């Protein structure tokens, strides 16, 4: 496998009660690459992320991280510790913590029980949180409870939490859902900035958003790759048109 | 973390009141003459000592339930185990002053025709050993139980049910004479502790003061834990467990830690309880007892520590007053209190007190401008 490979899925399948949610899926994400994954509802996009992060085990197939780490043997916390950050389809932040605490809890740090018990917030951490607040435009809301944020703001906070982890790969599931057009464009901009330093996989339905990302697109259908290439290339693909229109 | 940060307003007021009571009750009992209006009778000292043990037990439950969402319906078991550990020491302290005057064997063993002490009774002749066991045994049980339950990701109602099953199983086990813990009757007829006569006023006052110190210590320890970064992780687990995992926190480790600490606090409460009530029996393991602890915490104010302690004291006091007056209605009254609080005081008595105070004296700071968007 090439030095540049960050994530490698090979022949991965997973069924639920006989229904093949993921069907012989293969995919390579390179270091620093940004990739958009599109596909109709139920195509298996979220399940793919579940498999990468150890939430769901594949029935067959390989999931390799970097050189040779087998992700099928790792749990959710383990995948996070390896450097995989995940944003959920439904925004999930810690509603009873302040915005600021949400970020502090996400910062890359010792995750052991006693390390956390005796943790003292450093100036470097405070500075990083300030930076992140600024980046996701939540500085004014830093002392508010995360539960009081608007839907779009929660999405951003979750993206901020992802960045706080400083992961090597970000899995971002429908980040633009529930955002205004301006917010959507701003999110695309944010993700473009992140790519390069980090690998990013974005699942999204909003084609305007995918276009704004300006990256390679993979079309998932019935748990397998239907097509990939540039957005224009895949949208011209008759099979892709068929699956989107034929529903 | 500095002490001033641990003692916020709520904690400060509670500890202040506790301190006042801890000074006044001993004075009222030992110094005031029995005909004085300020005299505190000895039975009341023991009773209040018992309430303080309950309060510590409630704080222990609040730590796991209020902050980490683990609704344990078996905390009475940890309390009872602590109580039994101390009871075993007190039994050994009786020595040859028992009915059968056997210097080594407690009466019930002589009665069962046992000729020697079971292995697990060894060491309990030493106070320090019993004191350590009162913490270690509940802690160990919590560790083993939590290890399996949390790793298998048993949560919610299922976890509550198995904690309840745990205390029920222990109750049945402790009822059996062959277990070697006095069966039905439990352990009782204690004479003294560390050479102090358990019937004397001074000893009762001493135990009362120890209970107050243990409660204050338990509150501060719990506050320290919940105010740390770990405490924030606990709340994160309570509110969004899966999110917490995806941030790289091994949730089971955190749950195990707080469950064990909580069990040890419950054990400490039990160890102080036994000498003050003079008996420990398998009834302490009964599922109903564990459920009552949950009611204390809910009634006082879940997730506030101080509220939990307050809830335990309010309920225990009402129980004493009501059962003295019309015993039949106690369970109905408890049920009614619980229902009223859940319906009308969702944040418990403490939440109600604090909200009323804020309404009477509105803060100078303007209300948050959240309404603007709505
Ligand atoms: N844990 C599960 N148990 C049973 N079925 C599941 C499970 N997870 C996913 N599925 C099924 O697998 C299929 C793929 O679901 P998935 O959530 O991955 O789709 P998706 O591409 O993310 O769709 P959407 O765009 O609606 O989010 C669906 O039919 C779903 O019902
Ligand atoms: Mg999905």
UniProtKB/TrEMBL annotation, chain A:
Entry keyword annotation includes ATP-binding: yes
This protein's GO CC annotations: plasma membrane
ABC transporter domain boundaries: 7-247
InterPro entries: AAA+_ATPase (IPR003593), ABC_AA/LPS_Transport (IPR051120), ABC_transporter-like_ATP-bd (IPR003439), ABC_transptr_urea_ATP-bd_UrtD (IPR017781), P-loop_NTPase (IPR027417)
Keywords assigned by UniProt, alphabetized: ATP-binding, Nucleotide-binding, Transport
Gene Ontology MF term list: ATP binding; ATP hydrolysis activity
Pfam family of the protein (one): ABC_tran
PANTHER family: CONSERVED COMPONENT OF ABC TRANSPORTER FOR NATURAL AMINO ACIDS-RELATED, HIGH-AFFINITY BRANCHED-CHAIN AMINO ACID TRANSPORT ATP-BINDING PROTEIN
Protein name per Swiss-Prot or TrEMBL: Urea ABC transporter ATP-binding protein UrtD
Organism the protein comes from: Oceanomicrobium pacificus
Taxonomic lineage: Bacteria, Pseudomonadati, Pseudomonadota, Alphaproteobacteria, Rhodobacterales
Recorded name of the encoding gene: urtD
From TrEMBL, chain B:
Keywords: Cell membrane, Membrane, Transmembrane, Transmembrane helix
Gene responsible for this protein: urtC
TM region positions: 12-32, 38-57, 64-86, 126-150, 157-175, 205-222, 253-273, 293-317, 329-353
GO MF terms held by the record: branched-chain amino acid transmembrane transporter activity
Protein name: Urea ABC transporter permease subunit UrtC
Main localization, broad class: membrane
One GO CC term on file: plasma membrane
InterPro entries on file: ABC_transp_permease, ABC_transptr_urea_perm_UrtC, LivM-like
Localisation per UniProt entry: Cell membrane
Top-level lineage group: Bacteria
Record membrane topology: Multi-pass membrane protein
Pfam families named in the record: BPD_transp_2
CDD domains: TM_PBP1_LivM_like
């Amino acid at each position: 496998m090439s030095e540049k490979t960050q994530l490698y899925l090979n022949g991965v399948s997973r069924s639920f009660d006989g229904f093949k949610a993921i069907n012989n899926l293969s995919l390579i994400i390179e270091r620093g690459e940004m990739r958009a994954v599109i596909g109709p509802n139920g195509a298996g996009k979220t399940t793919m992320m579940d498999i990468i992060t150890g939430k769901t085990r594949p029935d067959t197939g390989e999931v390799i991280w970097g050189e040779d780490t087998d992700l099928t043997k790792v749990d959710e916390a383990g995948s996070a510790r390896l450097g995989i950050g995940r944003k959920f389809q439904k925004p999930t932040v810690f509603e009873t913590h302040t915005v600021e605490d949400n970020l502090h809890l996400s910062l890359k740090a010792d995750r052991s029980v006693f390390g956390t018990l005796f943790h003292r917030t450093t100036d470097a951490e405070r500075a990083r949180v300030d930076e992140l607040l600024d980046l996701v435009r939540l500085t004014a809301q830093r002392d508010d409870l995360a539960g009081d944020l608007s839907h779009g703001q929660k999405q951003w906070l979750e993206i901020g939490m992802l960045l706080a982890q400083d992961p090597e790969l970000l899995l971002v599931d429908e980040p633009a859902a529930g955002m205004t057009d301006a917010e959507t464009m701003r999110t695309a901009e944010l993700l473009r900035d992140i790519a390069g330093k980090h690998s990013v996989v974005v699942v999204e339905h909003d084609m305007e958003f995918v276009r704004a990302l300006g990256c390679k697109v993979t079309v998932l259908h019935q748990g397998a790759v239907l097509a990939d290439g540039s957005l224009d290339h895949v949208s011209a693909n008759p099979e892709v048109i068929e699956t989107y229109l034929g529903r | 973390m500095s002490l001033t940060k641990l003692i916020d307003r709520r904690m400060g007021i509670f500890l202040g009141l506790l301190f006042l009571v801890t000074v006044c009750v001993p004075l009222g009992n030992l110094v005031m003459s029995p005909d004085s209006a300020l005299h505190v009778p000895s039975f009341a000292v023991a009773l209040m000592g018992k309430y303080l043990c309950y309060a510590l037990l409630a704080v222990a439950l609040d730590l796991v339930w209020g902050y980490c969402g683990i609704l344990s319906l078996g905390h009475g078991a940890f309390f009872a185990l602590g109580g039994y550990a101390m009871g075993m020491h007190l039994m050994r302290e009786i020595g040859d002053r028992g009915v059968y005057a056997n210097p080594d064997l407690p009466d019930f063993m002589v009665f069962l025709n046992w000729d020697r002490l079971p292995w697990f009774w060894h060491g309990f002749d030493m106070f320090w050993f019993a004191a350590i066991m009162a913490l270690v045994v509940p802690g160990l049980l919590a560790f083993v139980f939590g290890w399996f339950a949390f790793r298998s990701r048993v949560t919610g109602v299922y976890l509550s049910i198995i904690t309840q099953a745990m205390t029920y199983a222990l109750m049945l086990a402790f009822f059996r004479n062959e277990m070697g813990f006095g069966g039905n009757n439990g352990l009782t007829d204690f004479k003294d502790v560390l050479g102090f006569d358990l019937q004397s006023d001074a000893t009762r006052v001493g135990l009362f003061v120890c209970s107050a110190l243990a409660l204050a210590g338990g509150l501060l320890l719990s506050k320290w834990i919940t105010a740390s970064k770990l405490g924030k992780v606990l709340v994160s687990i309570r509110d969004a467990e899966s999110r917490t995992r995806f941030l790289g926190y091994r949730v089971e480790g955190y749950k195990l830690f707080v469950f064990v600490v909580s069990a040890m606090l419950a054990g400490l409460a039990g160890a102080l309880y036994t000498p003050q009530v003079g008996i420990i029996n398998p009834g302490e393991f009964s599922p109903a007892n564990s459920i009552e602890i949950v009611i204390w915490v809910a009634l006082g104010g879940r997730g506030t520590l101080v509220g939990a302690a307050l809830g335990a004291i309010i309920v225990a006091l009402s129980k004493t007053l009501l059962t003295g007056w019309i015993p039949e209605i106690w369970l109905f009254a408890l049920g009614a209190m619980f229902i009223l609080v859940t319906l009308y005081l969702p944040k418990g008595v403490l939440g109600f007190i604090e909200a009323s105070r804020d309404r009477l004296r509105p803060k100078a700071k303007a209300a948050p401008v959240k309404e603007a968007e709505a």
